[in-house]
Amino acid sequence: MISYFQNIDKSILKGDTIMKGYTVESGYMGYVDGVYMLFASEADYEEYLNR
What we know:
The protein is of the alpha+beta class. It has two helices and four strands; from the N terminus they run αββββα. The N and C termini lie far apart (about 25 Å).
């Protein structure tokens, strides 16, 4: 399983949710349903996933 996560820019396991994304100049690009979405911050992305 470790080799799988080496290919992800940033991932955090939260229950059964995998956070995946990266920081950009205008915020945080978070992976949601097969596409990247722009969030104001990583915290906003985490909050969106946990809603």
